[in-house]
Amino acid sequence: MDRSEFAKRRTELMRMMGEDGIAIIPAAPPRRRNRDVFYPYRQSSDFFYLSGFAEPDAVAVLAPGRQHGEYLLFCRERDLAKEVWDGPIVGQERAVSDYRVDDAFPVDDIDDILPGLIEGRRKVFYTMGVEADFDHRVIGWVSQIRERVRSGARAPAEYVSLEHLLHEMRLIKARPEIEIMRRAANISAQAHRHAMMACRPGLHEYEIEAELQAIFRRHGGWPAYPPIVGGGGNSCILHYIENSATLRAGDLLLIDAAVELDCYASDVTRTFPVNGRFSGEQRAVYELVLTAQRAAIAEVRPGNHWNQPHETATGILVDGMLELGLLRGERDSIIEQRDYRRFFMHRTGHYLGMDVHDVGDYRIDGQWRELEPGMALTVEPGLYIAAGSEGVDERWWNIGVRIEDDVVVTREGCEVLSANAPRTIDEIESLMAS
Ligand code: GLY
Ligand code: MN
Ligand code: MN
Predict the structure, then answer these.
(1) Is the CB of residue 256 below 6 angstroms from any atom belonging to ligand 1?
(2) What does each of the 434 residues of the chain score in pLDDT, given as a tens digit?
(3) Range of the domain at 17
(4) Are residues 92 and 144 in the same domain?
(5) Distance between alpha carbon 384 and the CA centroid of its chain, in Å?
(6) Are 165 and 17 in contact (CB under 8 A)?
(7) pTM of whole model > 0.85?
(8) Which of 243, 270, 345, 378 to probe ligand 1 with, by most ligand atoms within 8 A of CB?
(9) Which of 284, 244, 315, 285 is nearest to 384 (CA)?
């Protein structure tokens, strides 16, 4: 992404903060997996959104109106011996030349410098409760100033969570963000297509996972979340990530897997028969979920409120379940009592962006929020009929179907970013037969 995009965001945030505030945004800490092995590093979304800076051990500071520059970055110092092992470190000089930082300091000097920057500002914009260790450091810096008030120091009067301002900005995606999300969703669609073609009875779920991973890595991405590859009864386990079972002819396979690209997530689910042909019951459930999904997507347009796609999908799923005999009773009461949650236990979607369950408020003053151009979300109805479901004929057991696409709200309606993943029964069956 062009560096000017990050600069634009910082300017916008500072404008909203006002000159009596200072914002402190830490990079994500590296996370240990076991002993001396670390998870692949993933930058904090808030930090990356404002800085485009990918290294750990960094703290961005926005000090609106500061004479010697408003954007400060504390980051690691160059260290040639370390760089032999871990690769290049950006360092202060290149932070200024390549990242549009006004003033860069070694992160080891932060305790000496930051209190002086905070002093005299009324508000500290910082999100407490995410990284406990860093919370203590911020409190420590502010306390240092408080201890000096009798010598004339001016301590800040309040902490303000950065979340409100920053997450409202992140909620509405700009054109370059949508462009990355479009690319990510397309790669994920390609991975699903590839998985359908690779699938056959006798393979393990993890072998299909490997096929998906291959496509993600071939495009320079990582999974945006642990892939769910669940055959048969595992298709009914919402967060199944073990992916260890053998795939059997006659079963469905539910895959919820998608790539993250340049810190932007996609989130795509497809469900298809292991042997390439839907059975009668599988077909009936699949068609129902697809009808609900299509109708829900049609509700994604400016002016409709957040819950409209969910309400539409729920109505269609309930009607269908009554028709198929999966539910009995009175439609309105099933909806009101939420009895449908026996088989449809999650919501129809969530915001999507740098985080897979992205930031932003779903309600404003207690009311569902209106959809606006630039919001990105998933539309993902599903039905899950686990073995042993009481009162349900056995022929429906172990059928779990979710169909999930990524959409972005446009001026006229919405764009489906993941449309290249085969979705109709005909598309899926003919692809798998080829
Ligand atoms: N893959 C997570 C979700 O669908 O929400
Ligand atoms: Mn999702
Ligand atoms: Mn998903």
Answers:
(1) yes
(2) 899 999 999 999 999 999 999 999 999 999 999 999 999 999 999 999 999 999 999 999 999 999 999 999 999 999 999 999 999 999 999 999 999 999 999 999 999 999 999 999 999 999 999 999 999 999 999 999 999 888 888 989 899 999 999 999 999 999 999 999 999 999 999 999 999 999 999 999 999 999 999 999 999 999 999 999 999 999 999 999 999 999 999 999 999 999 999 999 999 999 999 999 999 999 999 999 999 999 999 999 999 999 999 999 999 999 999 999 999 999 999 999 999 999 999 999 999 999 999 999 999 999 999 999 999 999 999 999 999 999 999 999 999 999 999 999 999 999 999 999 999 999 999 999 99
(3) 3-169
(4) yes
(5) 23
(6) yes
(7) yes
(8) 378
(9) 285
* Catalytic residue positions, numbered: 36, 239, 256, 267, 346, 350, 357, 380, 384, 402, 404
Looking at the fold, whether 153 and 182 belong to one and the same domain comes out as no
State whether 57 and 197 are in the same domain.
Answer: no
Ligand lying closest to the C-alpha of residue 379 = 2
Q: Is beta strand 228-231 parallel, antiparallel or unpaired with respect to 252-256?
A: antiparallel
Given 116, 139, 169, the domain boundary residue is 169
Q: How far apart are CA 395 and CA 282, in angstroms?
A: 9
- CA of 366 relative to ligand 3 center, distance in Å: 27
Q: Whose CA is nearest to atom 5 of ligand 1?
A: 357
Question: Both 24 and 136 in a single domain?
Answer: yes
What atom of ligand 1 comes closest to residue 404's alpha carbon? 4
125: tokens are 């914009």
The owner of tokens 């009461």 is 333
Query: Residue 332: exposed, middle, or buried by beta-carbon count in 10 A (0-12, 13-18, 19+)?
Result: exposed
